[in-house]
Every structure is written in structure tokens, then in C-alpha cells.
Design goal:
The longest helix has 8 residues. It is globular and about 60 Å long. The relative contact order is 0.13. Strands 6, 7, 8, 9, 10, 11, 12 and 13 form an eight-stranded antiparallel β-sheet that branches. The chain has a four-stranded antiparallel β-sheet with strand order 1-2-3-4. A hairpin with a 5-residue loop joins strand 12 and strand 13. The two termini are 25 Å apart. With 312 residues, the chain is an alpha+beta fold. The N terminus is likely disordered. Helix content is 15%, strand content 29%.
Length: 312
């Protein structure tokens, strides 16, 4: 069971947080930043005595630029971090102005590193949403919430702030006939994702029960953004497939690792996930082993193309 499962169980009023069972992590996950000892980073209690700054759109942009290296300490100038130390969790909402509109930044953290200052890796989520999100009354309404809710660590901040996040911001892929890609769902994966919908399946019916790698009653597949290596949790390798090397936009070459994995709940997936040394982000495509052949999966994975704004 990953930490994000505990976050969801403790804070379903996020109002969702993105994880409903011990098999399914949600968006609040990564943030493990490695700092050199000589930097002498502030401990959480050091921030509690300081006068707090007002969060601005410019500050959000600077925080988002850290991507997966964003840490809970980075929010010290804007909010009191002492509850993390005193109570083992932190769940706060900051407001900031963006082009005349009030947006919210929900910061969540938990005690997975309480034993070691400066609490490296304690950040679970840094999610931007609009004020109307706070007015949602049910999980069903939150499942249906559109792309105007996303974790700032996932890149494409401009689209997040404008409220029009799509999976195509990060990658493109050609799906098998009869499948289509859903809209971006902030509660899938660690940093969001989209489900593969069969003919007749409605996007409004997506929930944590049927959408996502760890869903109890899974759909045909999906694409999710994870912390590098996270998707290995709660799964076992059935078969290693031939990896595919790819590259893009002047960055180091990527390895598309391909394999067959079985979750602890028994679902078997074909998986293609990006892998690069030093990377903290992995884009994971998964397809039902029960419904598709290995050849069909390999053909789909070869069409996977990361876009220029993809964070990896």
C-alpha cells in the first residue's frame, strides 16, 4: 500500500484526493528533492515563526518550475508547516490571483519522512483548481470535474491556470480501433491521466472503481503520469518485452520500457513506460492483456510520442 492510499482514506474531502483503496495511488505522491548537506535547508519548524508571504501567480510559476523536485519546504514562505510535524499531516489551500480570477492551490503532505529532517519527499500534492471546486458536494461531481484541476508538478502550467488541460499536452498515441481517449483526469496516476473508453462507455461514468491502473473493475486501459518507478508498487512482472529507444526535442534519449505486469488485485496489463536516468517522471501507457494481443500492444506503443512540453 502506497502513501497516497492513506492520504485518500484520511482526506476524502479533498474533496477527493484521488485514491479510494489500498491498491490505488492518487495524484498526491511525488516531491522527493535531494539537497546537498552544505545547503543546510530549513527544517519545517523554522518556517512556523516567519511572517508569511502572499502567494502570487509568479510564485506559483516558480514553484511549478521545480516539477517533481518540488518539496514541502518550498511552501514554507506561504503557509505554516508545523501541522506536518505536530499532527503528521498537512492539508491547506492557498489563494492567488491569476488574470483577475481567484485560483486555489491545495497543498497536502504526510509524514512518510518524519524521521528525517528536512522532511524530504513529504509533499503529496500541489493541485491548482478553481473556487467552484470547493462547492462540489459529492465524489461523483469530482470525478466529472474537467481539466481545470491538475498538479503543478506535471508541467504545462499555462494550461492548468487557464483550465484546459488535456493528455495531448503531454503526448500523443494511436489507439486500437474502437477505443478513444477520455479527458484529462487529475485523480488518475500521480499527476493525472486519461482512460481508454470503449464504444458505448461514457466519460461521465469514470470513477476510481473502473478508471486507473489499480482500478478494481478496470476499463480497457489508459495513460497516466507517475513518479519514476511508482507503478512497480503493488504489481509483479509477468513478462519482459523488448524495450524501445526513442528521443525528442534535444533531450537525452528515452527508453520505452515494455512489459506485462499483474496487479495485486489480479488485473494483467501490457505496459509501456518512459524511462531515463535521473528522471522523476514516467508516462505510462497500459492496455488490457485480456482484450488485446501482444502484437497489438507493441504496435500501439510504437506510436507513443511525447510532446515538447512533457516533463521528463
Amino acid at each position: 500500500m502506497t502513501l497516497k492510499h492513506l492520504v485518500f482514506a484520511f482526506c476524502f474531502g479533498f474533496v477527493l484526493s484521488g485514491c479510494s483503496s489500498e491498491k490505488h495511488p492518487s495524484i498526491e505522491s511525488i516531491g522527493n528533492i535531494q539537497k546537498e548537506p552544505e545547503q543546510n535547508p530549513k527544517m519545517i519548524e523554522d518556517f512556523s515563526e516567519e511572517e508569511k508571504e502572499i502567494l502570487t501567480a509568479e510564485a506559483v510559476e516558480q514553484l511549478a518550475a521545480k516539477h517533481a523536485e518540488l518539496a514541502i519546504e518550498d511552501f514554507g514562505p506561504y503557509l505554516d508547516l508545523s501541522p506536518l510535524q505536530e499532527e503528521g499531516s498537512l492539508w491547506e489551500t492557498l489563494e492567488f490571483d491569476y488574470e483577475g480570477e481567484t485560483l486555489c492551490l491545495r497543498v497536502s503532505a504526510s509524514d512518510k519522512e518524519l524521521a528525517a529532517a528536512p522532511y524530504e519527499g513529504a509533499l503529496d500534492g500541489a493541485v491548482v483548481f478553481r473556487e467552484d471546486f470547493l462547492e462540489l458536494d459529492s465524489a461523483e461531481e469530482e470525478y466529472a470535474y474537467d481539466g481545470s484541476c491538475a498538479d503543478i508538478r506535471s508541467g504545462n502550467l499555462e494550461h492548468i491556470l487557464d483550465g484546459n488541460v488535456e493528455m495531448s499536452d503531454y503526448l500523443t498515441v494511436t489507439l486500437p480501433e474502437g477505443l478513444r481517449l477520455s479527458g484529462f483526469k487529475y485523480w488518475m496516476g500521480s499527476h493525472g491521466g486519461a482512460a481508454f473508453l470503449r464504444e458505448g462507455e461514457a466519460e461521465e461514468e469514470l470513477t476510481l472503481e473502473n478508471a486507473g491502473f489499480y482500478a478494481e473493475k478496470p476499463l480497457a486501459g489508459g495513460i497516466e503520469i507517475w513518479g519514476n518507478g511508482e507503478i512497480e508498487q503493488g504489481t509483479s512482472v509477468v513478462k519482459e518485452l523488448t524495450p524501445l529507444e526513442t528521443g525528442g526535442w534535444g533531450k537525452d534519449a528515452l527508453i520505452l520500457r515494455r512489459e506485462i505486469r499483474q496487479t495485486d488485485s489480479g488485473t494483467v496489463w501490457y505496459i509501456a513506460r518512459t524511462e531515463r536516468e535521473g528522471s522523476r517522471i514516467s508516462y505510462c501507457l497500459y492496455l488490457s492483456e485480456e482484450e488485446y494481443t501482444e502484437e497489438e500492444f507493441l504496435a500501439v506503443s510504437e506510436t507513443l510520442c511525447l510532446m515538447e512540453n512533457a516533463v521528463y
